[in-house]
Amino acid sequence: MSDLLERLRGRGWRLTAQRRVVAEVLDGDHVHYTADEVHARAAHLLPEISRATVYNTLGELVSLGEIMEVSTDGRAKRYDPNAHHAHQHLVCSQCGTIRDVHPSGDLLAELPPEERFGFQVAAVEVTYRGLCPNCAAG
Amino acid sequence: MSDLLERLRGRGWRLTAQRRVVAEVLDGDHVHYTADEVHARAAHLLPEISRATVYNTLGELVSLGEIMEVSTDGRAKRYDPNAHHAHQHLVCSQCGTIRDVHPSGDLLAELPPEERFGFQVAAVEVTYRGLCPNCAAG
DNA sequence: TCCTACATTGGACTTTGTCTAAGTCAAGAA
DNA sequence: TTCTTGACTTAGACAAAGTCCAATGTAGGA
């Protein structure tokens, strides 16, 4: 994650305490927090940090390609720090747990030309849904 | 669509003017309205209809499996009346236009067992993103 | 026709996110 | 080190999308 801060400084990012704690909160591989969760965790490290700054910082990190926005439930967006490796998501329909997964095959190639309606198709997002082991057991 | 109303009555749905106009608005194949758009169009046919009723009715139609919720942009959910035929969505990243598409292959099968983490995977949602012909031309 | 359980209504409320004006501060210049 | 300046942060107002509730209305069976 210090890599991240270095990279961002290299791109002219002014390095503030607020941005540092947001980056720190997002450190870790299998984390998909909402903006509010990021704010709560950041506030634990830096109590005065404001919601607006968290939203701003998340937005910048998305623009810079350092994190990804994921909306799996039509409610709050979640932020996925694992942006440098292509992956898709597996979501528990009951508790909402999210896991990063790697389907086989070329998902983009599965949309035949006659189903593209002249679009220049650039990306594909896949969400698998089902019951996680915990919820299936309960 | 009168089929729909018959089916719902068969399931004990009380048939009110409000529900009738919501169903009427959703009639048509390639329509993906937001709740607000449904409300606006329903109000054109039945001016006193309230937002709460539109939300209630859409929610019931989703539960009954007659329409599908689609959230392609992290903002308002959209409602897809084409719920009886499996399909996925192709979305223009610029103007937001949505088309129903039919990828080849078995998308569910592309998630290998070792990538399922014990989940009972039941469904897969795919969103293709790109520029529609109009936006690509502009 | 009457009854009643189910449906509708409007408005308050919640959640998620955006915007703005005023104040603060990181980092380069001197 | 201190100064300067434009980028950054803040609190709170605002907006969009959706939920909830108590009061009222009504579809459809008896």
UniProtKB/TrEMBL annotation, chains A, B:
Its cofactor is Zn(2+). It comes from the Bacteria. One of its GO terms (molecular function) is transcription cis-regulatory region binding. Keywords: DNA-binding, Metal-binding, Repressor, Transcription, Transcription regulation, Zinc. Zn(2+) binds at C92, C95, C132, C135. Gene3D superfamilies: 3.30.1490.190, Winged helix-like DNA-binding domain superfamily/Winged helix DNA-binding domain (1.10.10.10). InterPro entries: FUR, Fur_C, WH-like_DNA-bd_sf, WH_DNA-bd_sf. Binds 1 zinc ion per subunit. Pfam families: FUR. GO terms for biological process: negative regulation of DNA-templated transcription; regulation of secondary metabolite biosynthetic process. Coiled coil: none annotated. Belongs to the Fur family. PANTHER family: HYDROGEN PEROXIDE SENSITIVE REPRESSOR (PTHR33202:SF22), ZINC UPTAKE REGULATION PROTEIN (PTHR33202). This is Fur family ferric uptake transcriptional regulator. It comes from Streptomyces eurocidicus.
